[in-house]
Amino acid sequence: MTKRTTIFLSVSWLSLVIGAAACSTAQDKSEIASTSAAGCSSGSIEVCVLPGAYELDTAIDSVLSNLKQKAKGDGFNGARVACTEVSYPGAEPKVLAEAAERGTFICLFNNTATMNMALNRLSTFIEDFETVDADAKYSDEVWAEEQKSNGSLGHNLESQDLSRYLKETKPFIEKRSQSQVLGIQIENEFSKKFILPMLQNKPKSILLGVPLPETSGEEAAAELKAVLGHEIFHSLYFHSDVMQQVVKSYVDAASAADISLMKKRLSQKGYAVENEDGSPASAKQSYMFYNETAAYLLESGACTDGAFMSYVDESVEDLKEISKTAPLVVKHAAKLREILVSKQVIDPQWAKKWSPDLIKDGCHL
Question: Which positions ≥6 away from 186 have C-beta within 8 Å?
Fold first, then answer.
């Protein structure tokens, strides 16, 4: 999950996706059509599926070229989402050979409220180890209302966690199925129309959720790159055992002070990567720690607005001073990226576009 302040995509791309999905069902290029019926289905949320698997850069370039107007949609009214499969952006031969059996899916929601309504209960269960349904304070109405102001700006949901959620919370899901609350209906319909078919057709997959922007132009393009760039590194981490091994070895070799700062910053962002009582972290907490550390170091926004940079004092105007408050990015981002390129986890040309340029993006070396 991406937890920070940013802006989103324009509605123009969603219109493009909807049009393509409605008219190109005969042009399937991958198994996405079997994951969820190609085209759009109406209801409390309009779910549109774009058939085919597209390279990330191609998909995003199409998005950015169509940023012409502000995103529309007030809260849950007119809720819409467009989903598509993205071809694996890495270069590792073993993972590429397995790519047909694995899936990376991106879902673009027409606003943050709709995205968090559809996905935040899942993320809370997976990342915060909390079952919202079991908390008496969260009636359907209260939970739905809270999502309208939720600050989460991106979600990454792995298939094994989604399956575990569906299994362990089945009674709660069945109870919610009859809810008359619009937000809950949106949540139920998205699960039924996209998540369940995705898990059935590609059991080993990851779902990345991002919202459309409220602005347009270069500012929106940069912020989209930061948010989606963060989430796509979760996809790389999910698909690649080599990346998981490289990241763990690299981080474990860092100084105790740096590791402590990484955990502190992630905890301050709301990630349950360590226990307050000092007891050893669980396997899931450790996985989250390495996964989020990699994503926040490698994302294009690492130098300006990620977990390891967002504590910079706003009064600091001289970029040279930023290096004093951003030791993690300055020390580790480029080195980790170089190792991952050498191990063929990520393609060098792709890395240049989707991983930080430490000087251009605001980190003074």
Answer: 44, 45, 76, 79, 114, 117, 118
Amino acid, res. 282 = S
Helix 182-190 vs helix 140-147: crossing angle, to nearest 10 = 80
Tokens of 307: 């977990």
pLDDT digits (tens, 9 = 90+) for 53-92: 777 766 655 544 433 333 455 689 889 888 888 888 788 8
- pLDDT tens string 307-365: 776 544 444 444 444 444 467 887 888 899 999 999 999 888 888 778 766 545 556 54
246 touches 339 (CB < 8 A):
yes
Six-digit token string for 39: 């085209």
Supply 251's token pair.
Answer: 């981080």
Is residue 300 within 8 A of residue 356, CB to CB? The reply is yes
Query: Which whole-number Å values give the CA distances from 284 to 92, 273, 279, 321, in the listed order?
Result: 25, 8, 14, 36
The packing angle between helices 217-239 and 283-298, to 10°, is 140
| C-alpha closest to that of 243 among 145, 351, 120 | 351
335 contact partners, CB below 8 Å, separation of at least 6: 250
DSSP output for 84-140 = EEE---B--HHHHHHGGGEEEEEEEESSHHHHHHHHHHHHHHHHS---GGG-TT--H
Q: Give the tokens for residue 17.
A: 């996706």
Residue 100 burial (CB count, 10 A): 12
Helix (H) or strand (E) holding 82: strand 80-86
* Total-model pTM: 0.81
Q: Is 275 exposed, middle or buried (0-12, 13-18, 19+ CB in 10 A)?
A: exposed
- Reference 233, options 307, 164, 181, 327; nearest CA is 307
Task: Report the candidate in 89, 347, 68 with the shortest Cα–Cα distance to residue 221.
Answer: 68
Residue closest to 239 by CA, chosen among 87, 123, 126: 87
Q: How many CA atoms lie within 13 A of 281 on its CB side?
A: 14
From the centroid of its chain, how far is CA 138?
A: 25
